[in-house]
Amino acid sequence: MATKQIAPGLFEISLGAVNLFLLESDDGWALIDTGFPNKADQILKAVQELGKQPTDIRHIIVTHAHPDHIGNLAALKRATNATTYSHPADTAIARAGGNFRPLTPAPGFINGLMFRIFIRPVGPLEGTEIDQEIGEGDLLPIAGGLTVLHTPGHCAGHLSFFWPRQQLLFVGDACSNLPRLGWSLGYENIQVGQQSLARLAKLDFDLACFGHGKSILHDASAQFRKQWL
Ligand SMILES: [Zn+2]
Ligand SMILES: [Zn+2]
Q1: What is the largest CA-CA distance in the chain?
Q2: Residue 108 sits in which domain range?
Q3: Residues with Cβ within 5 Å of ion ligand 1?
Q4: Phi, psi at residue 199, to the nearest 5°?
């Protein structure tokens, strides 16, 4: 596990295959995504190393309800008592900790191979109460304002977030940057995913943070335009 500052007030916690993001906010901190199951202690240790207590986290937002993003949601909600957020299309999955919808591999031989290696059926997770459902156009009063973008395709309830303060896009799994900008490994509907990516590519942002892969720290929207328009 490694914690890295991406921008003022923003830290990335890498759990190896998946990234979480901690965002400083006036009323506490916000966590975007929670990683694979059984990592809550590691995540809370990273929070403590930043000089914060678990209860300093006031918001936990999931980009979507896949096991590598909601894996520690229940444990972290218990430890922090934070408000939890997801898109309505994924809320039932987060609450149940199961009933994951099937994905099909993204185009390309390597994606197909990686999909078969990494996308495994998982047993049921612990379900978690979702306190607030959020969707397209909502403005969350977190860290000076986070704009909610509904970006379906990877899954129906997938969310990305634009953070104007740093001109930064939280991409989630709409695409990945592993090892370079490209498809995520799987999609519920790749045509819809392409439309979401074309839409993101029309926005202006300088930094981009991904569920999987390294953050892009400069001129990120130029790379998106080149890849997805
Ligand atoms: Zn996913
Ligand atoms: Zn993921």
Answers
A1: 46
A2: 2-228
A3: 66, 173
A4: -65, -45
